[in-house]
Amino acid sequence: MQNLEVDLDKLKIKNPILTASGTFGYGLEYTSFGALNKLGGIITKGLSLEPRQGSSGHRVFETPCGIINSIGLQNIGVKSFVQDKLPNLPWDQTPVITNIYGNSISEFEELADYLAGQKEIAALEVNISCPNVSAGGMLFGQDPDLAGQVCQRVKSRAGDKPVIMKLTPNTGDILGIARAVQDAGADIISLINTITAMEVDIESRTPVLGNVTGGLSGPCIKPIALRMVHEVCQNVQIPVIGIGGISSARDILEFILVGAHAVELGSINFSRPDISFQLVNELSRLTRELNIGSWEEFRGMLETQG
Amino acid sequence: MNRQANSNQEYVKLRVEDITSFSSKKFYHLRLTSPGWNWKPGQFVMLRPNKWTFDPFGARPFSIADDDGKNLHIYFQVVGKGTQKLAELRKNESVMVWGPLGNHFESDPNVPTLLLAGGMGIVPFVGLVENYPNPKNLELIFGHRHDIGNYPYNLMARKILTWNVQDVSEKDLTWLERALRIKMQGYSEDGMIMACGPRPFLQLIQQFALQFNVRAQVSLETRMLCGIGACLGCVVQNQQQENIPVCSHGPVFNIQDVVL
Question: Is residue A294 part of a domain?
């Protein structure tokens, strides 16, 4: 496919490759590895109203085919991002999407309010799924009513910015949550965030992470992510962005085949810092190889029996 | 010392020229084709062999021991799954490397400088000693647990005054502590210290540095994922209780600035 453009209804991107929040810093860290404007979009590290110091103790641990992290949403704060980082990003050439995190619904509102006024920001991704913070975080994403409320209130303050709701897999009712945010006016859904997990050291008899538990990510979670994205795509009408262990052009097509419009690349950015850029080329090549002429003819075309 | 030297970072494929083990099979010297970087002692690279699939998942950080224009020299000790797999590298295989990362030691050839290294903490000093304009002004104290033949110590002993203490027993540790105390005091007037090694070793050095008011820089060893300040997995706390990424704001810090 020559033209990899994707139309997410309220958001148009030049290709379906976005960078997952928390795995691509503020974007500028990766300028030595490729041209940022080549990407479908850049999603920032989760931003809060005030700077956050994050978790103490060990924060990352490698597991087979993945990592567990508990960074605890350390970030420089939304204002510092807008003042110090945003002007240096190629926002006029590729969408810059801010991932936002609030301790309360009113903090989410305040964040949306502030960002609605920033012309350089293309959309908001609302983090109701972080497993590593004590207040709010994942709780908002585990209760359909709360998830809907956060969405509706952010939406009411976000002006014309599209609102992406990022869902957690740590719930028994992913469809209930997805439907709730759709009903509350979400423009796009992205999933999955990390899966709650832990590792322990039998010699020291302690958890390997300072926070005891963390979020598992990387290729080991891809089949779980694919299943959940498939399930959500079957049941909502708004565009879905697939996230979870994606590391190749083939993986990207798998998510699109089950119904996703676009994807976010996460942990793999740490192992291969050039990969988001490289996969733009590889995706173009692979779609040609498979004779995929347009996204419309391939997206959601998984053939299941019965 | 918060300079972020990321303007000349590169992501390159390098070829293994040679990998040799020291006297025990736990310590290795890896020689790669030189990327021809402009680097300074204290800086490091992230390294991941091309043949690795997803397990181990991430790259590994290593100090740049030296780059003589022909080869980039890396030394490592097998401590886990990743380094065990690295030891299986063979001549002509390729590795992906990104660097030079982080900041570096601030050296001044006119200032008498005491190098304090614990175990593999000796590695960043290899290139410093090798390329130092005034070796007479350098002195090294090296504390190590394993046999001295496992470390690139002899290279340095040929060029500068060196002392080594093998700490096997409690008594040896007391001896090392005494040596550090006496030596560091000697540098408090007009000298400075550069240190690298395990945390307990650095904590002791920090305690003496503050006690004797001696200028000291410390290079921190931490687990890292990205090496470029993106994941925030490798933070250390500064005196203002802020969590600072070691990879992008370090690995070298003024010793009074960090909580060890």
Answer: no
User: Which residues, listed in sequence order, are joined to residue B235 by a DSSP beta bridge?
Assistant: B245
CA-to-CA dists, residue B111 to A134, B69, B114, angstroms? 49, 27, 10
Answer for the pair A103, A78: CB distance below 8 angstroms, yes or no: no
Final residue belonging to a domain, choices B101, B129, B161? B101
We report the CATH number of the domain holding residue B190 as: 3.40.50.80
- How many structural domains compose chain A? 1
- Structural domain ending residue among the three candidates B80, B101, B122: B101
Chain A residues closer than 8 Å to B242 by CB = 53
Supply the CATH number for residue A134's domain.
3.20.20.70
H helices present in A6-70, as ranges: none
Half-sphere exposure of A92 (CA within 13 A, CB side): 2
B98·A32 Cβ contact <8 A: yes
ipTM: 0.94
Whole-prediction pTM value? 0.95
- Over residues A172-212, the pLDDT tens digits come to 999 999 999 999 999 999 999 999 999 999 999 999 999 99
Residue A197 lies in a domain: yes
Task: Please state whether the peptide bond connecting residue B61 to the residue before it is cis, i.e. omega within 30 degrees of 0.
Answer: no
Query: A298: buried, middle or exposed (CB in 10 Å: 19+, 13-18, 0-12)?
Result: middle
Boundaries of domain holding B128: 113-259
Give the nearest partner residue to A67 out of B225, B232, B241, using CB atoms: B225
B5 within domain boundaries:
no
The whole domain housing A161 covers 6-289
Q: Who among A29, A54, A218 is closest to B228 (CB)?
A: A29
3-state secondary structure of B118: strand
How open is the CA angle A282-A243-A61, to the nearest 5 degrees? Answer: 100
Does residue A214 belong to the interface with chain B, where contact is any CB pair within 8 Å? Answer: no
Q: How many domains does chain B have?
A: 2
Tokens matching residue A150 = 């956060």
A298, part of any domain: no
Asked if B57 lies within 8 A of A271 by C-beta distance, the reply is: yes
Helices A144-157, A174-183: inter-axial angle, 10-degree rounding: 30
Catalytic residues of A: 130
Pair A70, A12: CB distance under 8 Å: no
Q: Which of A209-213, A302-306, B69-73 has the lowest mean pLDDT?
A: A302-306
Q: Which amino acid is at B236?
A: V
Does residue A186 belong to any structural domain of this protein?
yes
Contact A64 B55 (CB under 8 A): yes
- Sort residue A27 into left (φ over 0), alpha (ψ -120 to 50) or beta: left
